[in-house]
Specification:
By secondary structure, the chain is of the alpha+beta class. Helices cover about 20% and strands about 40% of the residues. It has a 6-stranded antiparallel beta sheet with strand order 1-6-5-4-3-2, covered by helices on one side.
Length: about 140
Amino acid sequence: MLVFSTKLFVKELLTDEIFINKAIAWVKGGKNYYFGEFEWNEKEEFSVSSSDEKQKFTINRYSDAVVVHLVNIDEKIIWTSDFVLTKKNGKRILASFLYNDAVDMSVRLPEQFNRPYLLKQIVAEGFGELVYPSVINSTF
């Protein structure tokens, strides 16, 4: 079930490489993720899983987008975070989606959640871009 989604304009300063490095730092530094040591090989498709296969982190790099995908199975709930960094009409856009799904249909899904840390970090570090409403309507 989709529990959170947003799109925001980001500054040109947030390059694909900076975004990927921030995503890697997020999962490496997160207290809830256990991937061990890994290095991104700078290939277009990169994936790493935890030793128990309950977590998977993926980076897909395309000519016009970077997609970061994180799956975390927490007890009987699957949490999925997706981030898509694109460029459209000369503006960089970051889309963020957070999903939760029950492994077992008898499990009650949580009603509370935290906004994705990577998104909060990007905004806190000043990568957000202020855009006037007329630009928003013509871009999305």
